[in-house]
Amino acid sequence: IWLPRVKPAAQRTSLFDMFDAMEERPAQDNNAKIFITTFSGYDSQLLAAELLHQRHPEFTYICAGWSDIDKYACQMHDLIFPQYADKALGDITKIDWRKVRQSLNGQELDMLTYSSPCTDVSQAGKQMGLKEGSGTRSALLWNVSDAIEVLKPKYLLQENVAALVSQKFMPDFQKWLDRLNSLGYASYWT
Q1: Choosing from 80, 100, 118, 164, which is the catalytic residue?
Q2: Rounded to 5 degrees, what angle do the CA atoms 124, 130, 135 make?
Q3: Of 111, 151, 152, 189, which sits 20 to 30 A from 9 (CA to CA)?
Q4: 118 flagged as catalytic
């Protein structure tokens, strides 16, 4: 998303100023964009949404759910976003997306993010790949298609390492793009 640069009203002195501003906002906003993040970690995607809100206060969001299994990543997520601690969905392989859909109470999901593990495609990793059904950590990407089929989010956002689109892994990445196409999504990547 490209937006014009806007000078903040007050100069921020630290990243923690952003967290203070998050706590001041009301929890309910009927115009808020609804996000679900998977492979969330400390949730850089929600941090980006928060920064966008601070630069453009008319943009508001809520997190309807997030997923990670790493104990320390979950603790960090709860420290940064305590208001969403009760929205943890757990292990991506065990989420019942129909129940998640019901929890939205008829609201449409605006954004689903999925920054699946890069460990098996990264230059620093063992390069075992992300082939569907291979059992590698990077192949957990394929579990996201269940969420997409059930939730039908308006937008999808994937973040990963550059090696994902390398010659070695491009065939599997292309299969992923084909899957998204079959689900009705146009993909743009860089």
Answers
A1: 118
A2: 105
A3: 111
A4: yes
